[in-house]
Write a sequence for this structure.
């Protein structure tokens, strides 16, 4: 298995170690299959639980991350030993044939030579089988050597911060699946030798307009979310997504600085149309984000740790800002 397969395997294992909101989400998905069979009060409790979990999920995207890749380790990977022809079983059978004398009854019924012939045929058959295995292992070995060499070339380019290779590796691994599933679009480019990531957060598909709560009677209450609560949730989601993107990039690529710019559709009061505008732009440094206790931070407050542009008010939400410029 090459490093790509290894990393995917590691990430598959890590994905099993999910934060509580994602574990709960999967449990709720299973329970939803029986939704039609639920009684009214049970349905109400289920819907509120599902809603609360969704809110927690979109505010805590930053709490998970894929496996770290050590590119130096890939460059310095040892070449595996070349396969050898395994003759242990063949030698054992040949020894058995050389020492074969036959039992009293085999000699009595003249079956010694017949049994020796069977042993010879078994040895010949095993030699063919082992030869085929050996030839296949040689082909696999040659392919593995090619893969190791290609991996080393990629790793060296990554360590040299080759821009094309970095973008290709990010696209190949696509570590932003959860964010993508929430309706976010991400693009990458290099500007003045710095990796710039633009994320279109598509908040209208993510942030709910209503709040579900459970009344004392056990029935569900559905009310319009207040503007301030909507805006605060919106801000936490955007900042959490930006942190998650930064963590994924730093785990995948050995660079120490990135610029992440979040955009969303905003109404232009002059034209009456919505335009895609920058609502947050942050210069994220590896050492800084790695120093944070990401399980306990408020994602919106955490932006104070980075150079960033964000104009946000609880009452009005985000206002358009300029992209961060780092000299």
């Amino acid at each position: 298995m090459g490093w790509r397969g290894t990393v995917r395997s590691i990430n598959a294992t890590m994905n099993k170690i999910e934060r509580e909101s994602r574990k709960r989400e999967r449990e709720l998905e299973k329970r939803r299959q029986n939704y039609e069979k639920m009684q009214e009060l049970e349905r109400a409790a289920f819907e509120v639980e599902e809603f609360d979990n969704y809110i927690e999920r979109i505010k805590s995207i930053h709490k998970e991350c894929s496996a770290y890749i050590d590119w130096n380790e890939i460059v310095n990977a040892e070449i595996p030993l070349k396969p050898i022809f395994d003759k242990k079983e063949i030698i054992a059978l040949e020894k058995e044939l050389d020492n074969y004398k036959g039992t009293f009854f085999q000699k009595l019924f003249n079956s010694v030579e017949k049994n020796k012939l069977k042993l010879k045929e078994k040895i010949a058959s095993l030699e063919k089988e082992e030869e085929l295995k050996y030839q296949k292992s040689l082909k696999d070995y040659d392919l593995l050597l090619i893969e190791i060499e290609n991996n080393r070339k990629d790793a060296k380019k990554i360590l040299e911060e080759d821009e094309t290779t970095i973008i290709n590796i990010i696209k190949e691994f696509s570590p932003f699946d959860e964010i993508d599933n929430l309706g976010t679009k991400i693009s990458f480019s290099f500007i003045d030798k710095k990796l710039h990531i633009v994320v279109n957060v598509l908040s209208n598909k993510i942030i709910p307009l209503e709040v579900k709560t459970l009344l004392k009677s056990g029935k569900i209450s559905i009310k319009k979310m207040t503007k301030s609560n909507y805006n605060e949730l919106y801000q936490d989601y955007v900042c959490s997504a930006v942190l998650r993107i930064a963590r994924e990039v730093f785990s995948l690529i050995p660079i120490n600085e990135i610029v992440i710019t979040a955009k969303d559709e905003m109404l232009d009061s002059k034209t009456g149309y919505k335009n895609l505008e920058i609502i947050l732009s942050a210069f994220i440094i590896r050492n800084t984000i790695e120093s944070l206790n990401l399980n306990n931070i408020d994602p919106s407050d955490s932006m104070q740790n980075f150079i960033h542009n964000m104009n946000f008010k609880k009452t009005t939400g985000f206002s358009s800002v300029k992209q961060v410029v780092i000299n």
User: Anything to note?
Assistant: The radius of gyration is 31 Å. The chain has two domains: 3-66+175-319, 88-157. The first strand starts at residue 185 and ends at 191.
